[in-house]
Specification:
alkaline phosphatase activity, Rossmann fold, binds magnesium ion, five-stranded parallel beta sheet, 36% helix, hydrolase, metal-binding, 2 domains, alpha/beta, PGP_euk, binds L-phospholactate, EC 3.1.3.41
Length: 320
């Protein structure tokens, strides 16, 4: 793997010009890069427009499985980001469905048990699967040992777990029945491994990975991670867009998901990686990490090629 030991800080015009020269395709993480909750990060719209005018291609890759591609499309439009189509958007609820279809070959019309928000249910339905559990209001009830959802439905073929703000004991207990069922053999897909995400008002909030890891712990079994930094996910995005990895830059705010995703790749050949400091990674944390990357689980695979304070600064830097 070829990653730079010391990331280059993009703060002068010639740095930004060199990036434009080197990369044709940009994979953008969303939470902490494009937006914070419902607010677009300052300058991001101008940077995206500038890149587009310069012939650059985009894909948006988010580990947040709460919204479907259709809902993200509406979010991009409500934030005034033009020119985004459904084909540009890769949330992990969609990655989960792709894994069911391609890797696991689960037949269409199968029932899939969901612990997560409506994004997963909507993507499953669009692909021809039948989601069960999920946002079903009967799961909002207080725990009762005779609740109908504590008896497994024999038609369920797999379990998908992702981000949810409706995490309660009924949902945990019913999901556990499926994860333990058939000697723990039905596929367990986790939409992401993020512990937290940057929410509104500077709040750090629990992300989907905390839900997935809760279920992993209680069921005592591993999950298939379909989100960043999954190499399968990266390969699918590069292939779908026809992106040459050597001319593709991953832009993200989290070292163990986005930056590792950009740096890794099939046979160890990654894309470039650009870390922004508007989300989950503070300058202090980055500094501490760079002092001794090998003290961290994923070590040098999390060292970004480049760092910029904010994606929104890019256009100002290049026009300075
Ligand atoms: C943090 C993550 O979203 P992303 O940063 O990948 O858009 C998530 O919300 O779990
Ligand atoms: Mg992020």
């Amino acid at each position: 793997m070829t990653v730079k030991k010391n990331p280059l800080l993009i703060h002068r015009r010639e740095h930004a010009e060199a990036l434009l020269e080197k990369y044709d395709n940009f994979l953008f993480d969303c939470d902490g890069v494009i937006w914070l909750d419902e607010k677009i990060i300052e300058g991001v719209k101008d940077t995206l427009e500038f890149l587009k005018k310069n012939g650059k291609k985009f894909a948006f890759v988010t580990n947040n499985s709460s919204k479907s591609r259709q809902e993200y499309l509406a979010k991009f439009s409500s934030l005034g980001i033009q020119g985004v189509t459904k084909d540009h958007i890769f949330p992990t609820c969609y990655a989960a469905v792709q894994a069911l279809e391609s890797d696991l070959q689960v037949p269409k019309k199968s029932k899939i048990w969901v612990l997560g928000d409506s994004g997963i249910e909507d993507e499953l339905e669009e692909a021809g699967y039948i989601p069960v559990g999920g946002t079903d209001a009967r799961l909002n009830q207080a725990f009762r040992a005779d609740h109908e959802f504590l008896t497994v439905d024999p038609e369920v073929q797999a379990v998908v777990v992702g981000s949810t703000k409706e995490f309660n004991y009924m949902r945990i207990a019913s999901t556990l029945q499926y994860l333990l069922w058939k000697n723990k053999t039905i596929p367990f897909i986790g939409c992401n491994i993020d512990r937290s995400y940057p929410g509104p008002n500077g709040l750090i909030l629990p992300a989907g990975g905390s839900v997935v890891n809760y279920m992993q712990y209680t069921a005592d079994r591993d999950f298939i991670n379909v989100g960043k930094p999954s190499k399968v996910f990266l390969e699918a995005i590069l292939a779908k867009n026809g992106f040459d990895r050597s001319r593709t830059l991953m832009v993200g705010d989290t070292l163990y998901t986005d930056i590792k995703f950009g740096n890794d790749g099939q046979l160890g050949e990654g894309c470039g990686s650009l870390l922004v400091l508007t989300g989950g990674t503070t300058p202090e944390y980055l500094h501490q990490f760079l002092q001794n990357p090998n003290h961290y689980d994923e070590g040098e695979s999390m060292i970004p090629s480049y760092v910029i304070r904010s994606l929104g600064d890019f256009v100002d830097i290049i026009q300075s």
